[in-house]
Amino acid sequence: MPFSLPRFLAAAFLLLAATCARADVWQGTVMWVTDGDTLWVRPDAGERARKLRLQGVDAPESCQSGGAQARQALIALALNQRVSVQTHARDGWGRSLATVRLRDKGGEDVAARMARQGWAWSYGRGRGPYAEQEAAARQARQGVFAHAAEPERPADFRRRHGPCTRAER
User: Fold this and answer.
1) Which of 17, 27, 114, 130 is a Cys-bridge partner for 122, taking CB atoms 3.0 to 4.6 Å apart?
2) pTM, entire model
3) Mind listing the pLDDT tens digit for each residue in 68-114?
4) 145 φ, ψ to 5°?
5) How many CA atoms lie within 13 A of 103 on its CB side?
6) Is 168 helix (H, G, I), strand (E, B) or coil?
7) What pairing do the DSSP bridges indicate for beta strands 96-102 and 82-90?
8) Is the dihedral of CA 68, 123, 126, 137 positive or negative?
9) Cβ(74)–Cβ(114) under 8 Å?
10) Whose CA is closest to 28, among 102, 93, 133?
11) In the prediction, which pLDDT does 92 show?
C-alpha cells in the first residue's frame, strides 16, 4: 500500500486525540501511602480513592533496603495533603501513572521531591525526567545514596526477587 500523507496525518491526529483524552486532571486529598512511589488519593468530587503510581520515578520496594524510609518520606510529604493529579496511563499492576503536585505548597511535584531527597530513582538511568534531582541527592549522599555502596535499583531488585507481596503483583 503506497504512503498517503492525508491518511498518515489522519492516523496521527487520532492517535494524538486518544492520548490526550486519556490524560485526566483532577484535585483530591492523599489518604494512604503504600510505598515510596504509590499513594491513594480521594478526588474532591467525592468518588472513592484512586491508587496512583508517581510518574517518572521508582522508589525502593517495601522489603528492599530503604523501602520503609522511602514510604515514611512520602507519608511526611504528602499524607492528608491536598493535591492536583494528572494521570497519564496505567502500569502493569493496574495503577494510574500520575504527576502529583502539592496544592498548598506552590504546586511542588511530589516525584521531584522524592528524587531530590534520595528516596527515588529517576527513570532512564541518568537521563530520565528527574535525573537532575537524583544526581543532586547522590552528590549530597541523601536517602538511599547515603552509604558508600551503590544501592540496588528497584527494577533490578524486582527482577531478582519479584515484588515484596502478592498484593503488589
Assistant:
1) 130
2) 0.82
3) 999 999 999 999 999 999 999 998 888 899 999 999 989 999 999 99
4) -95, 10
5) 14
6) helix
7) antiparallel
8) negative
9) yes
10) 102
11) 86
